[in-house]
Amino acid sequence: MSVVAGKIIDESIVIAADSQVTWGQAKTEGTKLYKIGESLIFGGAGLLRDINLMRLFLDTHTPASAEERDVLEFYAEFVEWGKRKLSSFEPRSEFMFAFDGKLFETSNDFDVFYYDYGAIGSGWEYARAALHLGHTPTQAVGVACDLTIFCMPPVTEYRIPRHPQPPPGRNHEAI
């Protein structure tokens, strides 16, 4: 199981996740949070298969923007792509993204939620309450790990600028 928590903090977007992976009655440690370049973070809660497929999909795809229509189109493309990879693919997971200055969540029923702070996965209620009380995402995930058996440390955290600077280049004046 998983807990992923994110928050917009000043001019950064921060997302943290625990590392528990559960198979039936067994648990082990795994990664469910990824930073793609300097402009996108994503974390997943649900099936590790879905999270790994999203990671592969992000190697060649990103949303056109963080606007709802572009995120929905991106998610629909992910589902179509996943079915080409695995004919039986039906996503059953939630994803949290930091991208294009926004923090948002998508799920298998094509919902898109935007927020200043939020959490997904097992223990999301504990993490969200901790965020509401002023804790950082890492601290919020720690609270969830303390209060539910479905999450465990270590906690991974990534941060990106809310408004990334354009890459350095030559300045040209319009003529």
3D structure, described in words:
- The protein is an alpha+beta fold and 175 residues long.
- The chain is 27% helix and 33% strand.
- The chain is built from four helices and eleven strands.
- The chain has helices at 48-57, 68-85, 124-132, 137-147, and strands at residues 3-9, 12-17, 20-23, 26-29, 33-36, 40-45, 94-99, 102-107, 112-114, 117-121, 156-161.
- The strands form three sheets. Strands 5-6-7-8-9 form a five-stranded antiparallel sheet, with helices on one face. A four-stranded antiparallel sheet has the order 10-1-2-11, covered by helices on one side.
- A hairpin with a 2-residue loop joins strand 7 (94-99) and strand 8.
- Helix 3 (124-132) crosses helix 4 (137-147).
- The longest helix is centred in the middle third of the chain and has 18 residues, at 68-85.
- The chain is globular, with a radius of gyration of 17 Å.
- The mean pLDDT is 91.
Largest sheet: 5 strands, antiparallel
Strand arrangement in the largest pleated sheet: 5-6-7-8-9
Task: Look at the helices and sheets and give the structural class.
Answer: alpha+beta
Share of helical residues: 25-40%
Unreliable segments (pLDDT under 50, ≥5 consecutive)? none
Approximate shape: globular
- How many helices in DSSP terms? 4
Estimated radius of gyration: 17 Å
Strand tally: 11
| Average pLDDT figure | 91
β-strand percent reads 25-35%
Helix and strand element order: EEEEEEHHEEEEHHE
Separation of the first and last Cα atoms: 57 Å
Could you name the key traits of this structure?
175 residues; alpha+beta; five-stranded antiparallel β-sheet; four-stranded antiparallel β-sheet; 27% helix
